[in-house]
Amino acid sequence: MARVETPWNSLPSMLFDLARRRPERPMLRFWRDGDWRTVSWADFARRTAAVAAGLRAAGVSPGDRVLLVSESRPEWNIADAALMAVGAVTVPTYSTNLPGDHAHVLRDAGARAAVVSTPALAAKVLAGAAEAGGLDMLICMDGAPAVPAGTRILEWSALEAAPGDLPMLMAEAEQIPAGRLACLIYTSGTGGSPKGVMLPHRAMLANRAGLATALERLSLDGTPYLSFLPLSHSYEHTVGCFLLPSLGMEVVYSRGAERLAAEMAEVRPTILTAVPRLFEVLRARMLAQIEKEGGLKRRLFERALALGLRRLDGPPLGLVERAQDAVLDRVVRRKVRERFGGRLVGMVCGGARLDPDLSGFFLALGLPVLQGYGQSEAGPVISVNLPWNNDRRTVGAPLPGVETRIAPDGEILVRGDLVMDGYWNDAEATSRALVESAPGEAPWLHTGDVGRLEDGRLAVTDRKRDFIKTLGGDMVSPAKIEGLLMAEPEIAQAVAAGEGQPAIVAIIVPAEGMEAGLADAVKRVNARLSAFERVRRWLPAPPFSVENGLLTPTMKVKRRLVIERYGPEIASLGR
What we know:
Elements: H1 11-21, E1 26-32, E2 35-40, H2 41-57, E3 65-69, H3 74-85, E4 89-93, H4 99-109, E5 113-116, H5 119-132, E6 137-140, E7 152-155, H6 156-160, H7 166-174, E8 181-186, E9 196-200, H8 201-214, E10 224-227, H9 234-246, E11 250-253, H10 260-267, E12 271-274, H11 276-293, H12 295-313, H13 319-339, E13 346-349, H14 356-364, E14 369-374, E15 381-384, E16 397-398, E17 403-406, E18 411-415, E19 422-423, H15 427-433, E20 434-435, E21 444-454, E22 457-463, E23 468-469, E24 475-476, H16 478-486, E25 491-497, E26 504-510, H17 518-526, E27 535-540, H18 559-565, H19 567-574
Parallel strand pairs: 1-11, 3-4, 3-5, 5-6, 6-7, 10-11, 10-12, 12-13, 13-14, 26-27
Antiparallel strand pairs: 1-2, 8-9, 9-19, 14-15, 15-16, 17-18, 18-21, 20-21, 21-22, 23-24, 25-26
Helix pairs in contact: 1-2, 1-3, 1-7, 2-3, 4-5, 8-9, 12-13, 12-14
């Protein structure tokens, strides 16, 4: 089995070793009290040692599962590293979780302690704990609400005041075995109840080693990375907490989607990571702005977009068109790049399928959108496109050290050190996901995704279990239909359905102010589909959101729940 060597056995040992080498370098930048502040590598290591000592004194022991619920901030990283350093298991959960979500994770993980940031988040965790059977200890960063009898409160400031012994902790971290469980990352629950993915240190270190090899041509050392996704997201946890900092990048925590545009111009990042929904929003805003300006600006923008797409897809530009394209690069695309900070080398998209038309829009305007692929069960990064070898219709080549295979039914199989140990407390799901091809061999991860390998690149086409079989026996890909629908400016979200029905139907959320244009948008999409794929009838719906339970915290639509919630309407549409 292919491997990429890493000089560390555990994530804390890597962080402490890097802190020893670059003590005064900025590691984390965050906004607090009206200004940007930084945490150096030395500060991070010192504070982590203190918190680790405080956790031990409070009774946190090796193997204990501890919930971590916070917005992105330095204390998140410190708590995560400290828990791992003392042998405990971090259980990151989203700050947008509802009490019922927390109850499920607490009950499933058997966690009896939690680290939270704000009193409001603490209240939601405590409400979930009441449903799950209680909580022994609550560690609060910014103050705590009233707690029930039997729950001990510990203030973060008390942890940081503990007498930490950094040299001793560094020596202990070097002895942590690579196979020890580091964290439980719960899946987003798009296909049912979230499952706890058991990631050992080796899985995330394998991701780090593979990506570091792939990115070695980029000059990232000393440049800023704008961190937008929540740290509880498996991708951001690996890449934002460990990988990019280890390459010398300063992690800058965004203050949220509403400030992202201003932060890109201010921070001028070289790397930004996001999910497809963000790119959909950015495109809609850019098109609305250019429509508002109209006139010459609109015509130049449209010409720059058209010629940029020609460069991507052909046919080749003629002599006059190449000259026009060069002028438009200075007049139009340079201004677009400046709005995004002017020095991006990668806007990396993962978490769900990115429609090639959407990524093509940004690439044609000179923005380096790179699609990758992964899942929590694989550390989570499996493959990624690179700036000098980018193909927007694939998710790039598998990382060094990652084996891939396509099963006879089209399912993508993955093997390597990045693969999880299994699902917590779910032997049945583990046996379905991890399958040995021969006794004693490392198991293949059955991803549940359907795809193909093309000249060493991976193309992901569908979710294996999501195919729709219509009454006529046709097998239809909902991902394809939903992608085309959401590429239309009038449509914000969409779910295609029709299992066992005569034809495909859809639940469609209109973009703001675009309700009147839905019929035309569906008509345009149907013109690009085969007869059996076309959306025969559709229903407008209010937005899918985290609050109504139809959207994951990472902006993925929970298809199964949408279909369940709109079951009677879907049945009526299909008649």
